[in-house]
Automatic annotation (TrEMBL):
SUPFAM superfamilies: NagB/RpiA/CoA transferase-like (SSF100950). GO terms for molecular function: hydrolase activity; S-methyl-5-thioribose-1-phosphate isomerase activity. It comes from the Archaea. The keyword Hydrolase applies. Residues 44-63 are annotated as: Disordered. Keywords: Hydrolase. One of its GO terms (biological process) is L-methionine salvage from methylthioadenosine. This is NUDIX family hydrolase / eIF-2B domain protein. Belongs to the eIF-2B alpha/beta/delta subunits family. It comes from Natronomonas moolapensis (strain DSM 18674 / CECT 7526 / JCM 14361 / 8.8.11).
Length: 425
């Protein structure tokens, strides 16, 4: 802290729900920030659970923190410590000194009178292609929303800086290509980013990209919710088996089924977290080791296997967390239906899967000369899938090709073409 006053370092916490962040206005205790929009402000105490006195809800979970930096305001320098938190609800009780609040896309920071350095603070914690690549915890629906945020936020910054149309479009297409390269196996990410750029390719304006991104984020969140609603009607009152973590499947499990069996999903064991969430919803739940999936299907009364999707290929092949194929094949042997809960945006025009591999040390970190197979995904043939439960109802594997052809037409922006004109024309 500099400037001759005894003001502690300031933590600025951004709460994120879906794809919007919470901005607040304060009247005190920092006069330089009074009546200006900011995140939740508190003392930077180094606590991973969040800054002191900021009013963070107990349900908020840390996503990442950013490097601190110094800003000056009204003759005083403040050291800003930014942090991002995931918030499952928008029902947030603000501190007494907060006088107003608003959930907004992060691009709104550029359009409001904010505390000094607010965009700089958010820029240090917002998603990037690198954070997409490193995310081994979440499914493709969640990661695709973060991907669209990256494009939206880049466009918002270029709009605020007044960058010319051609230069801004060149920057944005480069950002989009980096996003696509971060997770090349994820069809939802590609479809949704392609749709934003395809819709904006008519006038190529950064402002249009911002608008299209906001619309497509809302549409994607709605599609994921409606796909879950389709699945709820299928599994209500049933006993189901699932594996891994899918943001689309999880809401299905926390209610309608009578009982849920979750495979632990090694090596990251994200199935354990899913089981805990299901238990919190007062649903009867059990965990099994991955190798026991076939045994559970053979010895317990399982009504359906419910899987998420990373990608669905044009021929109906499911690409999903490794173990999905084994579960589906075992289910076929016991005549148990296999349902895939997915938005249609996860359908890819590709016919060959792109696989990713996890780190070898997650399986074996010894010093012997041992090869390690740690695939992140596997491919389940369409004959092993009973149906895809989407936002528009059930699709049979044979119906997937038509959707794949529609998605193939969205990639024209990558070669300078436009398959659809901007809605602003």
């Amino acid at each position: 802290m500099t400037g001759g006053t005894d003001v502690p370092p300031v933590a600025v916490a951004f709460l994120r729900n879906d794809a919007e962040i919470l901005l607040a206005q304060y009247r005190g205790p920092i006069a330089a920030f009074a009546d200006r929009w900011t995140g939740l402000v508190g003392a930077a105490d180094g606590n991973a659970d969040g800054p002191e006195n900021a009013g963070l809800p107990e349900s908020a979970t840390p996503v990442r923190s950013g490097d601190p930096f110094t800003v000056g305001a009204e003759g005083t320098e403040f050291v800003i410590h930014p942090a991002l938190f995931e918030c499952p609800s928008r029902d947030v009780e603000l501190p007494d000194r907060a006088i107003d609040s608003d959930w907004v896309p992060a691009t709104e920071i550029h359009r409001r009178e904010t505390m000094p350095g607010l965009w700089r603070a958010y820029d240090r914690v917002r998603p990037t292609p690198a954070t997409l690549s490193a995310d081994t915890e979440h499914g493709s629906s969640y990661i695709s929303i973060r991907a669209m945020e990256i494009v939206r936020d880049a466009a918002g910054a270029l709009r605020a800086e007044g960058v010319g149309t051609d230069a801004a479009w060149a920057d944005l297409t480069a950002v989009a290509e980096d996003v696509l390269a971060a997770r090349p196996s994820m069809a939802a990410l590609r479809t949704r980013v392609d749709r934003i750029l395809s819709r904006a390719a008519g006038d190529r304006a950064a402002a249009t990209v911002v608008s299209m991104a906001i619309e497509e984020i809302d549409a994607a969140l709605d599609a994921d919710r409606r796909a879950a609603e389709t699945a709820r009607s299928v599994v209500e009152g049933e006993t189901v088996l699932t594996l891994s973590r899918s943001g689309t499947v999880l809401p299905v499990l926390a209610g309608p089924p009578e009982r849920v069996v979750v495979a632990e999903s090694r090596p990251d064991r994200e199935g354990i977290g899913v089981a805990e969430r299901v238990a919190e919803a007062s649903v009867d739940v059990a965990v099994c080791v991955d190798a026991a999936v076939a045994h559970v299907l053979a010895t317990e009364a399982i009504d359906a296997v419910v899987l998420g999707a990373d990608t669905v290929l044009a021929d109906g092949t499911l690409v999903n967390k490794v173990g999905s194929r084994a579960a589906a094949v075992a289910a076929n042997g016991t005549e148990t239906p296999v349902y895939v809960v997915t938005s249609k945006d996860k359908i890819s025009p590709d016919r060959t899967p792109t696989f990713e591999a996890g780190p070898a040390e997650a399986v074996y970190d010894g010093d012997r000369a041992i090869d390690v197979h740690n695939p992140t995904f596997d491919a389940t043939p369409p004959a092993s899938v009973t149906g895809f439960l989407t936002e528009d109802g059930r699709l049979d594997p044979a119906e997937v090709a038509d959707v794949a052809a529609e998605h193939a037409a969205l990639a024209g922006w990558r070669t300078g073409g436009s398959e659809s004109k901007s809605s602003s024309e």
